[in-house]
Amino acid sequence: MVETHDVLFARLRSVLVETLRFPAGDVAPEAAVLDLGLDSLDAAELSSALLKRWGLRVAVRDVFATETLRDIVVLMERSRVPAR
Fold first, then answer.
1. pLDDT (tens digit, 9 = 90+) per residue, 39-74?
2. Are 58 and 76 in contact (CB under 8 A)?
3. What integer pLDDT is reported at residue 13 of this predicted model?
């Protein structure tokens, strides 16, 4: 099943708000990663949560190469772990 950007963003948002405790009002697709204050520990936790919850492999270094949360959604879309 191919998931839409909206579904993937909802997954990203849930990790940022519920796990990393980012303010829900700050988490929007156009939000800048650096403006959110996402640090290396946050990026590592995000990467781990995406893999554990949904099998999405997003490298920490790739998170830091993005400008917005929408860019992270694109990474999520491209980085699915193949079914075993």
1. 989 999 999 999 999 989 999 999 989 999 999 999
2. yes
3. 97
pTM of the model: 0.87
Residue 43 has φ and ψ, to the nearest 5°, of -65, -40
Extended strands (E) in 1-84: none
pLDDT band of residue 82 (cuts 50, 70, 90) is low
Q: Which residues contact 37 (CB under 8 A, 6 or more apart)?
A: none
* Nearest C-alpha neighbor of 79 from the set 51, 48, 58, 64: 58
Q: How far apart are CA 41 and CA 51, in angstroms?
A: 16
Residue 69: CA atoms inside 13 Å, Cβ hemisphere, count? 24
Going from the C-alpha of 71 to that of each of 5, 82, 83, 84, the distances in angstroms are 11, 21, 24, 27
- What angle, 0 to 180 degrees and rounded to 10, lies between the N-to-C axes of helices 69-78 and 5-14? 110
